[in-house]
Amino acid sequence: MGKTAQRIWVVDDDPELRRLVGTYLTDLGYDVRCLSDGAQLMARLESQRPDLVVLDLMLPGDDGLSLLRRLRDQGDDMPVVMLTAKGDAVDRIIGLEQGADDYLAKPFLPRELSARIDAVLRRRVALPAGTPLAEGQQVCFGDNQLDLAARSLLRGGEPVAITSGEFSLLAAFVQHPHRPLSRERLIELARGPDSETDSRSMDVQVSRVRRLVEPDPARPRYLQTVWGYGYVFVPDGQPRSR
Fold first, then answer.
1. Nearest to residue 172, comparing CAs of 153, 193, 187?
2. Cα–Cα distance between 43 and 94 in angstroms, integer?
3. Which residues of 76-89 are buried (b: 16+ CB within 10 A; e: fewer)?
4. Starting from the edge strand earliest in sequence, which strands make up the sheet with 158-160, in order?
5. Domains of the chain
6. pLDDT tens digits, residue range 147-157?
7. Which of 38, 42, 74, 84 could form an SS bridge with 91, CB 3.0 to 4.6 Å?
């Protein structure tokens, strides 16, 4: 028996885009459902769940950002690729701040979208290169416990909702303790060498992860800034010597 096709939902109010993207992704072997607005998405989520949602920013009714914020506020870590218009940097940054796993600016080629989907799904099911797997390694710092095998995060013993992109970034940090990592190196470790993620987007992702693990995200103890370079993971939370 063949492997069950991964389920992709495309939420966009443009019928021609839904048709083109739906046909293309179906031909690639995905189980695709196309929806025209957020109301359809939220109604369907009451009884079903996809492996990934392609979510347009501009939708009638609740826009994509509002829907994404609602999902994340509910603790839902379902992978989301956000579609934005004209590569608007502000929309892209806001989308990442709200918890999008990746983004793509319209207009785009279908193969660009499939590449983003593939990358997000790989991060979801596979650990970053170099992750030690023996005995389901767990990394503890402060009151945080990151399980690399289970892809889960506990804080104070309570589960924390973490997206695939946030997990990949945190996993990259904990595998390189006390080693300053440039933004470019973090992008390579967390997103892959062919990622188009830029430095500003990586800063946003680090900010999101800080909100998950830091007692005071405004004064980070564990994910510290290396000015003019990048960031460093300090497991014991002690200030780095300058």
1. 187
2. 25
3. ebbbbbbbbeeeee
4. 138-141, 144-147, 152-155, 158-160
5. 7-125 (3.40.50.2300), 138-233 (1.10.10.10)
6. 888 888 999 99
7. 84
Q: What would you report as the CA-atom Rg of the chain, rounded to the nearest whole angstrom? A: 18
Tens of pLDDT, residues 32-61: 999 999 999 999 998 888 999 999 998 988
Query: Residue 109 has which token pair?
Result: 């080629």
Tokens 């030690």 sit on residue: 132
Residue 134 DSSP SS3: coil
Coil, helix or strand for 158? strand
Amino acid at 238: Q
Phi–psi pair at 35, nearest 5 degrees? -125, 150
The reported pTM is 0.63
34 forms beta bridges with: 10
Pair 153, 160: CB distance under 8 Å: yes
